[in-house]
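Checklist before submission:
- one chain only
- standard amino acids only
- sequence pasted in full

Submission:
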Amino acid sequence: MSQPVTPPAQPSSPPMAGPGYPPPGFAPGGPMGPPPGQYPGGQPTGPNVAPGPYGPPAQWPAPPATPKPSVLAGVLQVVALVLIPLGAALPFGENFSSSALWSTATTWAAFATAAALVQLAPLLGRAIGWQPRTSWTIGAVAVGCLIGFWVLIVLPGISSGQNFAITMGVFAAAIGLWLSPGRRL
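Returned file contents:
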């Protein structure tokens, strides 16, 4: 008689590993990870952890300290307020024979002076009651206006003494803003 034919034995495939597959040593279809409501490494510990798994911290962290303005930032912002109107008032040209910016481009001189005043916002913002980020943003807009003024009006005639004073004023305003509290960059 004939014996029943058995198919040849198939080699067992190694367990799959990777995303969606259990790691080696876990039964396929078995639970993965900790039971619901428990932390992966057991209960967390530390000074700000409540006794239960879902409660608020036992002790809330202190709010961050309000940054204080840098003395150097304030000095640079005041120097900018002095140098920009001073540069606009200085006569320019060969042998200082020409008029000042105030008489030749009054609107631009007034614009630069107003921006020089507004760039003091990070320095004076605390006295007004503004948040440091708000006053820094207002100061950043003013310094951006000063840089635009410098590119459009001052840079074409950069070789004059008047424009050097305005350049130093814009530079002082930018560095003073960078050192001010509330910086976003």
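Reviewer check: Helices lie at 71-89, 101-104, 106-118, 121-128, 132-154, 161-178.
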